[in-house]
Structures
1.
Amino acid sequence: MTSFISHTSVDCTDAYALSTWWKGVLGYTDLPDDPNEPGHEECLIQDPGTGHQLLFIEVPDPTPGKNKVHFDLRPRDLTQQEEVDRLLGHGAALSTDHRGIYGEGTGWVTLADPEGNLFCVLKSEAERAAARAQDS
């Protein structure tokens, strides 16, 4: 017997604001029968395609320091740079640029959401395929 992940929870100080921000990043939506509203202390959003869910929970004392779990995002339709630019325009902050860390065409960019939670932007699948084809 095994378990499965029901949803991923994110501790925060403003569940509505942060869930709304992440909906814009990921294209997730509110649950049809449970819409999120300002003042809600718990806000659940889901991927309309896969059903994956993120739950934002207000806590009085979010964990100080660097978050121990973070999201690694892979752009669906944009390049890594285009996605980084989009997210910076959406309100993310640049933390660290690790592109090229293991040679040309490698690496990731670490950004922070409005509450300072770190997440990474990886190369798109198209960029990865192009790099593999070039190496062949």
2.
Amino acid sequence: MSMDTLTTFFGWTVVINVAVLAFSAIGVIATRGFISRIHGRMFGLESADLSRAYFQYLAQYKIAVIVFSLVPYISLKLMA
């Protein structure tokens, strides 16, 4: 596999993952009350616990995108 192919691959993974992250963040923010009620009933959690869980999910996903997509893309761009 060539460097150009890998660079293109990681570039598209960054785009797709950032879009998923943005969609998830907007979804959590826009439907917080509705989603919190459903998840609260499903898992028996309080609203404060759910808010913490949503924040933790978004933070961990953002870190994963940075580590596994953005950093390799930047590294390949610098090597080229």
